[in-house]
Structure formats: C-alpha cells, structure tokens
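## tool: complex_structure
## caller: assistant
## args:
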Amino acid sequence: MAERLTAEARRQALGGIPGWTDIQGRDAIGKTFVFKDFNEAFGFMTRAALVAEKMDHHPEWRNVYKTVEVMLSTHDAGGVTRLDIELATAMNAIAKVTSS
Amino acid sequence: MAERLTAEARRQALGGIPGWTDIQGRDAIGKTFVFKDFNEAFGFMTRAALVAEKMDHHPEWRNVYKTVEVMLSTHDAGGVTRLDIELATAMNAIAKVTSS
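## result:
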C-alpha cells in the first residue's frame, strides 16, 4: 500500500508539478484547470478518468463548463501518497496537450 | 432564450423527474446519483456530457468515485428553466440504463 509522504517529500514532489498546492484544512493536494470550453474540459476529464481507472486511484473533482477543480488524496493512507503525485503529474501532461 | 419557470411550473416539472429537488440557497435543482463504481459513474457523466454539449447547456457537477452530484441552473435566466428540466430528464434516463 502507498504510504503518506513526509512533509519534505511532499514539498519536493509539489515543486515538480506546477499549479498543484496543498488544500487548506484537508490532507490533500489540489489544482484548478481552466480550459477554452466544455469540450476541452471534458476531454481532459475523460483522458484523466482512463488513467485514474487504470491506476485504481480516483480523483475528487468538480466541473463547471470550462473549469475543472481537482482534489487528490489517498483515503486508505489518510493523506497524500505517491499515487496522488503520479495522478497529478499525469493530469498536468494531459492538460498540456488538451489545451488549444 | 429560455425563461425562468414559475414556482408552479417548476413544482410540476420536479414531480416528473424522480430524485431532483430544489437546492437550498440557490435558484437551482440538484440530484446525487450513486452508481456501482467509477466505471459506471464516469460512463454516466460521459453520456450526459454529450447531451449537455448538444443542448449547449452544461451542468455543474462533482464526482467522487461512484457518486455524481449534479446541480442545474440557467445562468442567462438567473434560475431554473425548461433547459434544466430537459437535461435533468435526460440524466435520469441515462442513469437508468447505466446502472447495472
């Protein structure tokens, strides 16, 4: 099972994934992605969903038209693990190629 | 442009779409869909997204694993219109065939 990252490991990991920050009041990381329109936003979500399902590690996310707010945490570990960093990294890569 | 439904028209419309209720504090309607797993939940979202895009009327929604919370409102009209009722009706139909 993935273990909670230490504060230092987490700080370092966040440094490598632009836009992701600690979420206040929760042991989680988050990012708000803003796309051109709903087509791009949901395209991003679809690609991210396939990655998440394959990892068996799923996001908590909210979509309003062109905006996707993502929150990642590992329930079993009670905090942020390497799984969250991996999914966040994948999401950044997907957003990069999704945005026109 | 779609116009805000009267209180009576809205009450009647909600009677025809099981599970949808007024959202407290907002001029909107909402429903929480619970599926078997993420595959079903995101399958539902994907089908609903296609309908929403075709209608050019989009939901505000939040997904956590097998749960999808949906909030519908028509921004231009400042409240609930027939567009929201139509999308809610379509979502109920999609959820029915998506759930195993």
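## assistant note: The interface with chain A takes residues 38-39, 42, 45-46, 49, 52-53, 58-65 of chain B (CB under 8 Å). The two ends of chain B are 37 Å apart (CA to CA). Handing back to user.
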